[in-house]
């Protein structure tokens, strides 16, 4: 079976060096450092080796072949040039996108990519997205977390989504590191350790909830009434949102929200989800019922997640052959125009 995984991460040594040099500008540094220490101490297992992030043509392809993965959609997530000050983010994003495109050119049958944008400068992000799609053949962009604590439904970011809709490419709303204020209010407690706080606020729960709220806010902002061609990707089975589709519909009303449709209608029409390495059949079956195979794709979150299930899990899934093919590759092929 052909398998395309859509949340697989990449960077370059140069981008890593810039980010490390200017890491004081990144949000929530104390929590991020604690998170790294906890990962290295074994709470989440070892952090991926730098080579796993930068090596596209050797180690990664060997891994893909072993796991039955036909193609990866590559992106920079988490700590990316997006988080740097605008004057640094603009050249760093361009350099990273060009490096990604050069790697893809060597194996276009195995990789496509999503652009990194310097979102602290929305106008520059519009230009970078157009350049990345038209000149580099990247197939969309990935946004990683909030922008200095600002959510992407705010009007200043609308031109970025407008350009994505014009180009007919998706935007991936990926988790990022919550701000210190958010972390302290929601996850800090005297009843457990700082290590628990750092993990709880990031991959255990917090950054997934925040990424889901990004999507909820976008829908209620009315962006899909203004941009009916806009497509959004949401990882980790939709970052909690599919479980609340009925609840949100029951509590809200289009007359009160000013929207033309119910929340769940926008979600099912514009949002595409994938497991991001959370391989659980109950989640697969639940989300297949909630959003349908036409809006589901596959993803492993490489190299942060490496399993022996990426290809085998979907191939052995207890669902119809038609749904299996859509989730494994057909939805991605349609969305990314493969």
UniProtKB/TrEMBL annotation:
GO biological process: one example: secondary metabolic process
GO annotation, cellular component aspect: cytosol
Keyword tags: Lyase
UniProt-recorded Gene Ontology molecular function terms: carboxy-lyase activity; hydrolase activity
Domain annotation Amidohydrolase-related: ranges: 59-338
Record-linked SUPFAM superfamilies: Metallo-dependent hydrolases
Top-level taxonomic group: Bacteria
Protein name as annotated: Amidohydrolase-related domain-containing protein
Organism: Enterococcus hermanniensis
